[in-house]
Amino acid sequence: MKTRNLAMVVPAAGAALALGMTGVAGAAVIQNAPEVVPAVVLDDQGDTQIEPESIMLAPADGNDAVNFITWLVWNDGIAVGTGVEQVNTCEPTCAEGTTLSKPVVIVLDNVEPLDDSDDVHFTEARISGVDGSRTVELSSVAILPIDDAA
Fold first, then answer.
1. Helices in 42-126 by DSSP H: which ranges?
2. CA distances from 132 to 59, 129, 138 (A)
3. Could you tell me which residues come within 8 angstroms of residue 79 by beta carbon, excluding any fewer than 6 positions away?
4. C-alpha distances in angstroms, 88 versus 82, 110, 142?
5. Which residue from 112, 117, 123, 146 puts its CA 20 to 30 A from 77's CA?
6. Is 126 or 21 the better-scoring residue by pLDDT?
């Protein structure tokens, strides 16, 4: 029974794809689609960025950051990515602490308007990993600029 259902779905999906790619209705949808302006990350210095590679969660001392972020989804309401959270244990002191690296999923959401603009920015980040998850207010983060030379 599963094979029969799959046999009916594949031709239907192929036909829909072909019509969407070449049909007049498909072109009309693309031409009339509203422009989506993606949300941005706004850091504690007032700088904005789309799809930053790193977000410093503790910019005052640099002891917690999500680095090497690969964004899977980024739009005007949510951003989802994977990265490596690097946290200083600060034991016995932060200067002598060890940096632990853990894979995480980062979700940005809860958008609010930017001042004097129609654009929006994310206000919260949820960081989820092997140690559980937590929510961080984005008003106190720093974003590192994208290296255009790479």
1. none
2. 22, 5, 19
3. 39, 51, 71, 73, 106, 107, 108, 109, 122
4. 20, 28, 17
5. 146
6. 126
Residues pairing with 41 in the sheet: 49, 122
Q: Is the pLDDT of residue 19 over 50?
A: no
* pLDDT tens string 56-70: 888 778 789 999 999
State the pLDDT at residue 96: 93
Q: Which amino acid is at 106?
A: I
State the distance between the two ends of the chain, measured CA to CA, in whole angstroms: 51
One-letter amino acid at 147 equals: D
Name the E strands within 1-150.
40-42, 48-49, 55-56, 64-74, 79-88, 99-113, 120-129, 132-137, 142-143
Cα separation, 88 vs 34, in Å, equals 44
How far is it, in rounded angstroms, from Cα 56 to Cα 130?
A: 19
How many residues are given for the chain?
150
